[in-house]
Structures are given as structure tokens and as C-alpha cells.
Amino acid sequence: MSDVRDVIIVGSGPAGLTAAIYTARANLRPLVIEGELSSTGDQPGGQLMLTTEVENYPGFVDGIQGPDLMGSFRAQAAWFGAEYVTEKVTRVDFSSRPFVVEVGTTQYRARSIIVSTGARAKMIGLDDERRLLGYGVSTCATCDGFFFKETDIAVVGGGDSALEEAIFLTKFADKVTVVHRRDALRASKIMQERAFKNDKIEFLWNSEVVGLEGDKALTGALVRNVHTGETSTLAVSGLFVAIGHVPNTSLFVEQLDMDEAGYLLTGDGTRTNVEGVFAAGDVADHTYRQAITAAGTGCMAAIDAERWLEAQPHEADIKGTPADW
Amino acid sequence: MAQLEVLTDTTFDEAVGASDLPVVVDFWAEWCGPCRMVAPVLEQIAIEHAGKLRMAKVNVDDAPSVARRYDIMSIPTLIVFKDGVAKKRIVGAKGKGQMVDLLAEFL
């Protein structure tokens, strides 16, 4: 038998890395399968790798850069002995013990699993969206905003992340139009106030983007009023999509219970329907979705896993125990 | 780790035009999270495929005119140059395996 670990952590955002810090300090030798590089939200370090200033993570009076914060989490877990595999899990099997996690043809096995694969930004789903990604369409305002100096651009969405992006983008753009499906924002009051106060931000209410124009690069967005059905073209050279998130749970379909939107269901702390498999962070949370709540549930999952492992009979113990005890 | 060759507005044309090998140019910036993640991948590829291609990087803050000339609108963007001509464009961070696949025709 090859090495069976105590715990494998799948995913490496605030939840996964906090779970790694706690399980490493509990001498459980965690293996963190941290994911593969991308620019879409499921990369190592998670969604914070696509942000700049994080202002609401406790302990940093002047704020901290998202990638710097995640770099510190990672280094802290490594310091206590966490190991990393920088690849994407391709298959899991939670139906037998030990649990199996595969990365291509490499198989890892563990007695317990912490799932912290997070969520990624949703796309609108238009035909031209993929084609124009990197040519005006962007899922990462902090990466791409710089290239839209003195231009007119649009942000799609009405939540905190949409307004954060819109405000950030006013550093570069002449005008930022926020296109939102309803006539009121979901975003927090403080973000709404900041956005309404900003002269460069305009709102296009009750509207959705139904098409994109541009041959080699984006030139405009086709916008439809959801009440009147009227369509018009908004001339923009940049379109930033912030319409919510989808959980990264396709790996776990038919193995772990999830809700209609695909978020993992947990009960009694961080337990999933499979005993020994725990879930933490945005993958099981469509309500709070904060770095601090992800870190908090990551800590909970680590403690839940540690206690669960302690309560399990060890193979060695079973062999060593007389049958007539 | 090998450091990638740093190109600027003034050194870009000569470095890319005079090279016998294909030159992979990574357009990046300090403030871009995915760019920082992709840098070690490129450094590894540079070492493993030394002699077949050259790896270089352009900081878009320091070399705005090169970035503008190649219509960079998203970073990281990689452009592969052969005889000074842009042959291929790779937008967004990728893992090493995927990156090597995308560069296969030049290796």
C-alpha cells in the first residue's frame, strides 16, 4: 500500500490554507492540492489572487494586497509542515476508504478530506464572450483596468464586487457604466454610497447585456431593457463581468450532497453527507463569501477532521487489540 | 531560478528582431496577481527548454509603448515572436503543462 495520509485538502484559498495551518499544527501532515494557474478564480490562492486592496480582513489597519495575504497564509501553513501539489484534481472517489483523490494518473489517498475548492466568477454566457476575453472582456478588473485609461467601459452586476470593480476602474477610465438587471443594488450601503458619490460612475438600471460587438476587440455592448424589451448599443471598449459566482463542485457531483446551485451542503459544523469528508469556505457558502468566513470555516473543518480522525479506530490498534477484550 | 530577460521600450525591437530563437515575451505588472503566479512557470520552462526559445518579460508600467503597440488589454499576455514577428498570443495565466502544450510548436 502506498502512503495513506491523514488528510488531503483540496483547494487553497483562505479556507483551505487555514485548514492546512490547523491540521499541520495538529501533526496531521496535510497535503494541499492547490489547483492550477488560471485567471478565472479557481487558481492557487483562490479569488483573492484577483483582487488588490483587501480592507476588511482583521489585523491589517492599512489594508493588504490580496495576493500578499494569500502568500502569507501559504507560507504559514508550509512553515508548520503542509505540503503542496500545484495541480488540479481530476477525479475523486469518496465511496471507499481510504478516500482517493486523483491528479491525472497520480493517485493520492487519505483517511479524511477537506474540500475547499471555492467559487469562481460567473460569465454572462454570450457567444462572443470567450472570443473577446482578453480583448475588452475581462473577469479581472485589477489585472486589466490599467489598459482602459481614458476610455468608456461597463461593469455588469449590482453586488459588492461589481461596485468595487466599478470604483477601482474609475482610476483609469473616463466613464464607467454599471449595467444592472434590477432598479436597486444588492451591494452594501458603504459601497453604494461610494459609487453614487463617484462622478465617473453612471447606472443603467433594469438592463441586461445580450450581445457584444467588435471584430478584433470589443467596441460595444448590446443592452436590453428588461421591462420594455428595447435594445440599444452602449459604446464601450471594456466590459467587466461581476454577476456573481458559481461553486467549483463539478468534481463532487453524485458523491457529495449539494443544493440546486451546486453549493455543498454541510451540517453539524462542516460535515458533508460522507463521513470523513468536510467542506469549508465559499464552496459551501453562498451567503457570506468573505475571506474571514472562509478562514473561519477552514479552521472549523480542520478541528472537525482532527476530532473525527481521533475517534476512528486505527488499523494498528485493531490488530493489537485482543479479541476477547 | 533563471531570471527572465527584462525588455523595455528601448531594448525591445533589437532583442526580439535579432534573435535566432523564438522569443516568448511575458507582458506583466507588479500589481497583477496571476502575473506573479505565472512567472515561476515561465522561469522553469526557460530552463527546461534553453536553446530552443528565449523567455523575456515586459513590465507594462515601465514599457507602455510596447504594450500599446501590441494592443495588450489583459495581463498576463504572452506573445511568441519569430524573426521579430508576433506568431502567437496566449492570454491569461496557465499551469505549466498547459503552457508547454501551447508553446509546443516552438519547442
What does this structure look like?
The complex is a heterodimer of chains A (325) and B (107). Chain A is of the alpha/beta class. Chain A has 8 helices and 19 strands. In chain A, strands 1, 2, 5, 6, 7, 8 and 19 form a 7-stranded mixed β-sheet that branches. A 5-stranded parallel β-sheet of chain A has the order 10-17-11-12-13. A 3-stranded antiparallel β-sheet of chain A has the order 14-15-16. Chain A has 2 domains: 4-120 and 245-320, 3-Layer(bba) Sandwich (FAD/NAD(P)-binding domain); 123-241, FAD/NAD(P)-binding domain (3-Layer(bba) Sandwich), CATH 3.50.50.60. Chain B is built from 4 helices and 5 strands. Chain B has helices at 12-17, 33-48, 64-69, 96-103, and strands spanning 5-7, 23-28, 54-59, 77-82, 85-91. Chain B has a 5-stranded mixed β-sheet with strand order 1-3-2-4-5. Chain B starts with a strand and ends with a helix. Chains A and B meet through α4 of A and α2 of B.
* Overall pLDDT confidence of chain A: 92
Helix content of chain A: 10-25%
Computed over alpha carbons, the radius of gyration of chain A is 22 Å
CATH architecture of the largest domain in chain A: 3-Layer(bba) Sandwich
| SSE run of chain B | EHEHEHEEH
CATH class (first level) name of the largest domain in chain A: Alpha Beta
Continuous helix count of chain B: 4
Identify the CATH homologous superfamily of chain B: Glutaredoxin
Give the H and E element order of chain A.
EHEEEHEEEEEHEHEHEHEEEEEEEHH
**Main sheet of chain A?**
7 strands, mixed
Overall number of domains of chain B: 1
Quick overview of this protein structure:
Chain A is of the alpha/beta class and 325 residues long. Chain A contains eight helices and 19 strands. Chain B is 34% helix and 26% strand.
